[in-house]
Fold this sequence. Notes:
Chain A has helices spanning about 5-15, 55-70, 85, 110-120, 140, 185-195, 215-225, 235-250, 285-290, 305-310, 315-320, 325-335; strands at about 30-40, 40-45, 75-80, 95-100, 125-130, 150, 155, 160, 165-170, 200-210, 230-235, 255-265, 265-270, 275, 295-300.
Amino acid sequence: MTVSTLEELVLAALRSVTLGQTGPDIVSSGLVYDVVATGPAVRVLLDPERIPDGDADALGDFLAPLVEALPGIERVIVKPRPKSIASQEAKPVARYILGVHSGKGGVGKSTLSANLAVALGLLGLKVGVLDADVYGPSMPTLFGLSGRAEEMNGKIEPRAAHGVKIMSLGFLLPPEKALAWRGSLIDEGLPLLLSEVAWGDLDILLIDLPPGTSDVHLALAKHAHLSGILTVTTPGSLALIDVKRGMEMFADLAIPCLGIVENMASVACSDCGHAIPVFGQGGALALSEETGLPLLASIPFIPELSITGDAGVPYVIAAGDAPTSKSITALAVRIAKQIPAEALP
Amino acid sequence: MSGCGSSGIAFSSQQPVPGVRDIICVASGKGGVGKSTLTVNLAVSLASHGLAVGVLDADLYGPSVALLLGTDNEVLVTQEGKAAPKLAHGVHSLSVGNLLAPEAGLVWKGPLIAQAIEQMVYDVAWPELDVLLIDMPPGTGDIPITLLERIPVSGAVVVSTPQRLAAVDAERAIALFHEYDVPVFGIVENMDGYVCPCCGKINRLFQGGIVELMAKKRHVAYYGSVPLDPTANSAADAGTPFVVQDGQRPSAKAIAEVAGRLMKSLQRERANPKIAEDA
């Protein structure tokens, strides 16, 4: 049976609890904000505004045994929902918020995001990058940043490098720590990277999304006010199937896709110059034809993109005049046109 | 018979998988490093050594095993109500790709994952297997945690490309296995270079050496380097693993080497049952 029935079971049990003799039950009154089951572990989130006397612990001690007694439940956590979720109508943090997405990992999405962000900055825009790849945050490496993000006046200061503001979980956690994040933790933690960070006045925020279709994407779709999606793919067919899955997910969430960027299109042999389609060929064009979305750029595989990335100096800065840098800048110009003229409300 | 692999921590909810001797996770941390292609080729190579081999595709978000082995999406159900795995190239396999149309949008919410993973392991009529390889999804999220908590895993093989970006994530994957007391048998470097089909020169794609260094740092065996094989790619995408296409190509030889090392690691692990008897 699906675990959603577990959540329903918990909600039904909680409906039998009322505050005082005659009041409405705690679910109908909104005191219970949500029930989230992760396997047999259940989290009961309370609305912090409605907790009697503000004593969440006392209420938790009362409710937990009730839920624990239900069949199929191994662990119960009762706690107030995070404040960031409480402020549901949070303002978007930038005039345009672009999610950079790929169906599959390892297509160079993060490297491209970093270079695109720097290229947008070089156009004179105020640019931020949010590294939402919670399982493998790459932005610290790509921008050559280590250490922690500092807190100032109750907000986290984003780091800055190469003209771009950057926030990543990599700045909040030790680098080799296994990021064993459960889905429920993602739902709570990711929005904080938007609302609790002092982004300032941004023209555009790039969000480096994790690959695939997961809780992270749903959480961001809910909290990040995504204006659009940029889809990155390699030309091989394995990658394309995953890309289509991702595109369908965002379509379901009513977030438009600006277009497709083909990465790792071919490799030139350093000896004979022969262009070799190492990662397959033709797929992005086929995808573009099938979906009707424009193929915005086709970027060859050049080892220097990866090498400059590992060294923390984005390629568009390390080799600004190279053809690939010019392709990325042209892409930046097309994306900049999407930014609405009016300032943030 | 403990039947519980040899992991040190035995979680109370871990059930042995009937008929399966050793479960090995193939993981990468970072996506797109060629883990699924490597898993499938490794499986075929192990089978060619006479082992009974299965592959379970645990990458629910981006299942590729069905494509790589060229299996279809018609799964038969046995009389006991279990799914019958597919058989191709001498390897038994099951993937979400066998259960769904390729373009179906998949958004697995955390809670659904635990159930799906358990079903794919226990509700499948696996034949007697020496080794079941699990193609893990990238990252260290719900799926790997659920797997490690609920399924008795004997060991892991970690794959990385020679990039700092990938090696850092591979280290995270290693740390996760160690947290669950699952030994990491070896690390494979993938896509270090490729052979130009025109002039035969071996070109580097990334900076070499990083993976071997990381293996040393983490005290894990370095299983070797597998080059990229552009000419084999299109056939591989169509369901013919490159070790099947031609066992003599450099990529196939490298895989055979990895398979040999993995078999030795398994023998060593079996000869040294550690505290498994208490479990």
